[in-house]
Specification:
Subcellular location: Cytoplasm
Number of strands: 14
Bound molecules: 1,4-dihydronicotinamide adenine dinucleotide, ligand LXYGBJRG
Strand order of the largest sheet: 7-6-8-9-10-11
Strand content: 5-15%
Low-confidence stretches: none
CATH topology of the largest domain: Rossmann fold
CATH superfamily of the largest domain: NAD(P)-binding Rossmann-like Domain
CATH class of the largest domain: Alpha Beta
InterPro entries: D-isomer_DH_CS1 (IPR029752), D-isomer_DH_NAD-bd (IPR006140), Erythronate-4-P_DHase (IPR020921), Erythronate-4-P_DHase_dimer (IPR024531), NAD(P)-bd_dom_sf (IPR036291), PdxB_dimer_sf (IPR038251)
Radius of gyration: 21 Å
Distance between the termini: 53 Å
Largest sheet: 6 strands, parallel
Family: Belongs to the D-isomer specific 2-hydroxyacid dehydrogenase family. PdxB subfamily.
Keywords: Cytoplasm, NAD, Oxidoreductase, Pyridoxine biosynthesis
Mean pLDDT: 96
Structural class: alpha/beta
Function: Catalyzes the oxidation of erythronate-4-phosphate to 3-hydroxy-2-oxo-4-phosphonooxybutanoate.
Number of domains: 3
Number of helices: 16
Order of helices and strands: EHEHEHEHEHEHEHHEHEHEHEHEHHHEHE
């Protein structure tokens, strides 16, 4: 078989080497010609997989090493009898780490405790549910809405209107233009007006879930409003003025932990094995390297809130990514190229669970709080 894969998906040679020969291509500019002779096509979020791309090709299976599938014309694949797999939940942990790091900056800037915050979650799927569990265990007030979920499965649900009343609103829906509950411009002028003037909006799902023009206007009119954007309407293009108004800005890297990326490859490998009736011979565990920073230790005297902030940022520091983004975009002559370059060259980052946190055996509150935030807590 012939496999055509995006050049930025890790471990393709390791997982797909036994399937056949592999050609790597640039995902953003993938053409009909690139995929013409492929049996298996492996993509990321930057490749639009549609009728036009697949026309006349021999593709039998498409895998996307992503959670989101809005770049894939699923109807077209179904009609053509092409097998498909995505990677549900692969980088959910990384997105939750991203939101926790953003929240740590918000609480610092306000001089408050995490537990003083109410957080509204829009979309309680793999990311939203994990976030909810983490935040509730950490003692924050959480409201959530999701028209497709049952309370028995994801906990108490409320309306979007109520969620918009929280101190922080975090978006975790797919990008969907059609259906009964579309998410395209789910947050527009009317919804922003419903939020508190000093509320914080976090978007780490898809850019167009927020009307970016409306958000920019809102930020102009409400200087205390806080926007944290990982995803941008029309990316890799983005509005430089909007970036300047954001409290934290990153280039669609919320899910970019090494663990999340590699898990994405493993999941599409599993999907391909199932589709072609082949045995699964490989497991991700054999490829994941040891984490760099392995352990931080706290004394019993460290206040819980401070230990949480320190551990969260030792694991993932959103302000570093924000600083890189501002500097790169400020000097960029070519926004598209710069945006994709930051993503391609993204430094190695690990999921929170890889960070061991040492805590004295008698410091039970500290242990509980750090475990709630997702750390591997070792009592000593
Ligand atoms: N910035 C990044 O690096 C990443 C972004 N993403 C994006 O985040 C999205 C969410 O990820 P997951 O939680 O894993 O997806 P998921 O599919 O597990 O959950 C999405 C949830 O949103 C709900 N939903 C759909 N329409 C809604 C609406 N109108 N209002 C409220 N809820 C609605 C669904 O019922 C579902 O429970 C993905 O679709 C993807 O686009 C995912 C991973 C990384
Ligand atoms: O999984 C998703 O959905 C995402 O948004 C990915 O983190 C995006 O990564 P790329 O596919 O663009 O590398």
């Amino acid at each position: 078989m012939h496999i055509v894969a995006d050049e930025n998906i890790p471990l393709i040679e390791q997982f797909f080497g036994d399937f056949g020969d592999i050609t790597r291509v640039a995902g953003r500019t993938m053409t009909q010609e690139d995929v013409a002779k492929a049996d298996i096509l492996l993509v990321r979020s930057v490749t639009q997989v549609n009728r036009e791309l697949l026309e006349g090709s021999s593709v039998k299976f498409v895998g996307t090493a992503t959670i989101g599938t809005d770049h894939i014309d699923l109807e077209c694949l179904k009609e053509a009898g092409i097998g498909f797999a995505s990677a549900p939940g692969c980088n959910a942990q990384a997105v939750v780490d991203y939101v926790l790091s953003a929240l740590s900056v918000v609480v610092d800037s306000r001089g408050i405790d995490f537990r003083d915050l109410s957080v509204g979650i829009v979309g309680v799927g793999n990311v939203g549910l994990l976030l909810r569990q983490r935040l509730e265990q950490m003692g924050l007030t959480v409201l959530a809405c999701d028209p497709f979920k049952e309370e028995d499965d994801v906990g108490e649900l409320t309306t979007l209107d109520k969620v918009l009343g929280c101190d922080v609103v975090s978006l975790h829906t797919p990008m969907e233009k059609g259906g009964d509950h579309p998410t395209w411009h789910l947050i527009g002028d009317a919804q922003l007006q419903q939020m508190m003037t000093d509320a914080c909006l976090i978007n780490a799902c898809r850019g167009a879930v927020v009307d970016n023009d409306a958000l920019l206007k809102h930020l102009h009119d409400n200087p205390d409003f806080v926007a944290v954007l990982d995803v941008w309407e029309g990316e890799p293009e983005l509005n430089r003025e909007l970036l300047d108004f954001c409290a934290l800005a990153t280039p669609h890297i919320a899910g970019y932990s090494l663990d999340g990326k590699m898990r994405g490859t493993e999941l599409v490998y599993q999907g391909a094995c199932e589709f072609f009736g082949l045995p699964e011979r490989l497991k991700l565990g054999q490829f994941l390297p040891e984490p760099g920073i392995r352990r931080v230790d706290f004394s019993a005297e460290v206040p819980v809130h401070q230990a949480l902030r320190t551990a969260i940022r030792a694991s993932y520091e959103i302000r570093v990514d924000d600083g890189v983004m501002r500097s790169v975009i400020r000097h960029s002559q070519n926004l598209r190229e710069s945006f994709d370059r930051m993503r391609k060259d993204y430094p190695l980052r690990r999921d929170t669970i890889n960070l061991k946190v040492g805590v004295p055996a008698r410091a039970h509150d500290l242990q509980d709080a750090l475990e709630a935030a997702g750390f591997d807590v070792r009592s000593r």
